[in-house]
């Protein structure tokens, strides 16, 4: 897990009525890229923004690195079940097509889906998702880790919630 050494000092001046700064967002993306690129040969990383959420994707490996965005509260639209059903699921019966940004927060399908252990997806992962939905203005993120440079199945995920005026909450889940 990246140490996020500078994150506390970047968050300290942000009060409860403030918004997460571009400096915090840049620091997180740089931290994830540095950590990811240390274990992958010749990545081809692109940044994509869809429906107000941002994603880092390694085109060469065909896998998601990170996803993040600011909560706008509960998103009430229906899931696109046909798009989800068309997403590959090759990691076996214990895995779900997990949303990196929860649907209830406005996360879509396609780039936003990864193979995620069902016990994590509908278990421990839900706590921060629920808090993110309940806290407009908070920054919610996931950073996906891979044990093998050629695997598309994440081995772990760092899930974080940064609420202005509060301490960071970053959790590691084994996948």
Main sheet attributes: strand count, strand direction, barrel closure? 6 strands, antiparallel
Number of helices, where a helix is a run of at least 4 consecutive DSSP H or I residues: 4
Could you say which overall geometry the principal axes of the C-alpha atoms support? globular
Integer count of domains: 1
Radius of gyration in whole Å, from Cα? 15 Å
Q: pLDDT below 50 for ≥5 consecutive residues: which ranges?
A: none
Which class in CATH terms? Answer: Alpha Beta
Tell me the distance between the termini: 14 Å
Strand order within the widest sheet?
A: 1-2-3-6-7-8
Tell me what portion of residues adopts beta-strand conformation.
Answer: 25-35%
Strand and helix order? HHEEEHEEHEEE
> Could you please say which CATH topology applies here?
Extracellular Endonuclease, Chain A
What features would you describe in this structure?
There is one protein chain. The strands form 2 sheets. Strands 1-2-3-6-7-8 form a 6-stranded antiparallel beta sheet, sandwiched between helices. The chain has a two-stranded antiparallel ribbon with strand order 4-5. It is globular, with a radius of gyration of 15 Å. It has 175 residues and is an alpha+beta fold. The longest helix has 17 residues, at 118-134. The protein has 4 helices and 8 strands. The chain has a single domain, classed as Extracellular Endonuclease, subunit A (Extracellular Endonuclease, Chain A). It has helices spanning 7-11, 22-37, 81-85, 118-134; strands spanning 45-50, 53-58, 63-70, 95-99, 113-117, 139-145, 156-162, 169-174.
């Amino acid at each position: 897990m990246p140490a996020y050494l500078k994150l506390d000092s970047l968050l300290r001046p942000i009060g409860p009525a403030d918004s997460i700064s571009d400096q915090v967002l840049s620091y997180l993306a740089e931290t994830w890229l540095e950590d990811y690129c240390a274990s992958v040969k010749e990545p081809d990383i692109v940044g994509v923004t869809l429906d107000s959420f941002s994603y880092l994707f390694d085109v060469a490996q065909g896998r998601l690195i990170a996803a993040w965005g600011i909560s706008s509260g509960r998103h009430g639209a229906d899931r696109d079940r046909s798009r989800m059903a068309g997403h590959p699921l090759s990691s076996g019966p214990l895995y779900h097509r997990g949303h990196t940004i929860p649907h209830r927060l406005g996360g879509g399908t396609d780039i936003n889906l990864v193979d995620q252990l069902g016990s994590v997806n509908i278990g421990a992962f839900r706590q921060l998702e629920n808090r993110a939905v309940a806290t407009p203005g908070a920054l919610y993120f996931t950073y996906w880790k891979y044990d093998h440079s050629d695997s598309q199945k994440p081995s772990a995920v760092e899930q974080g919630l940064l609420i202005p005026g509060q301490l960071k909450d970053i959790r590691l889940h084994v996948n």
